[in-house]
Amino acid sequence: MTWSKESISVQEQQVQLSLMNSGRMPKHVAVIMDGNGRWAEERGKPRFEGHREGMERVRSTVKTCSKLGVSYLTLYAFSIENWKRPVPEVRFLMSLLESYLVREVDELDANNVRICAIGKINALPKAVQKILQSAMERTKKNDGLTLTLALSYGSRWDIQRAVQVMAMDVRRGKLSPEDLTEQTLASYLQTSGMPDPDLIIRTSGEMRLSNFLLWEAAYAELYVTETLWPEFTEQELYKGLASYVLRERRFGKTSAQVQPESQAQSRSTLERILDALT
Ligand code: IPE
Ligand code: IPE
Ligand code: MG
Question: For the chain, which residues score pLDDT lower than 70?
Fold first, then answer.
């Protein structure tokens, strides 16, 4: 199914158009998908039901970001610390990941999505690694949305690993200590080649990064919503994006220095939309 051909309501079309026409859409959106367990517990269901429902929101978030022309979407799906969870929950999450890739790869490929992964991939079960590799291989030439799954991912692990490889390259004479710039370090991280995230969304109200993209998030805008991940619908995503579009990113400068050419028009449209959504 080609997503661009799907029909959506007039109101939704308007929201999408105003976001895209703002000229300020994020290039890279990263999401900490949190709150599956609480969503299930609130309903007297086992935690895995929350993960299952959360998978539907992965599908809709990927689709919407792709339709909106976001270039990079990075989803924190399983942290390196999540291995400490009870074995049955970890097993369930791994099987869910496997079935997501099996079930979705055709549609993702048909919609020009390129699948990538960051994290300690060799720690994943062999079957998951195999399916992941084949999904990445199959979609590697796609030039639409780059969907990066952070799996068994930890930012400190990635930084430590990068520094170790750099040190080995210095020892081998491939690199001199003078070459160790910010850019060099960034190029050794698994996120090399991707722009830094512009917007990091975290669901379920937790005000922390939980070891996600610590280096890359230096100037990311943070959007935390109380909404639990299984309830993070398209409307919730629009709210996050509209909030981002309305912000002023200063990167250390003063407001006067970064004030763009008059965007009063798009600002007021977006403010109205944001009001309607909240
Ligand atoms: C996020 O939901 C999914 C993963 C971390 C894999 P949680 O499972 O952390 O849900 P809560 O935080 O317990 O509600
Ligand atoms: C962060 O959620 C990891 C993912 C969303 C995959 P957690 O639920 O594991 O985070 P903490 O432990 O509450 O910080
Ligand atoms: Mg959690």
Answer: 260-266, 278
pTM score, whole prediction: 0.96
Q: Which amino acid is at 68?
A: L
Domain boundaries 3-153+195-277, corresponding CATH code: 3.40.1180.10
pLDDT digits (tens, 9 = 90+) for 59-68: 999 999 999 9
- Residue ID of nearest Cα to ligand 2 atom 13: 210
User: Are 107 and 59 in contact, with CB atoms under 8 Å apart?
Assistant: no
Q: Report residues near ion ligand 3: CB below 5 Å.
A: 34
Distance 21 CA to ligand 1 centre (A): 34
Report pLDDT digits (tens) over 101-112. Answer: 999 999 999 999
Name the nearest CA neighbour of 135 among 152, 115, 151.
115
Report the side by side order of strands in the sheet with 28-32. 114-118, 146-153, 72-79, 28-32, 199-202, 221-224
The domain locations on the chain are 3-153+195-277
Written in H, E and C, the secondary structure of 34-54 is: CCHHHHHHHCCCCHHHHHHHH
Query: How high is the pLDDT of residue 248?
Result: 92
Answer yes or no: is the C-beta of 48 below 6 A from any ligand 1 atom: no
- Alpha-carbon distance of 47 to 37, in angstroms, equals 5
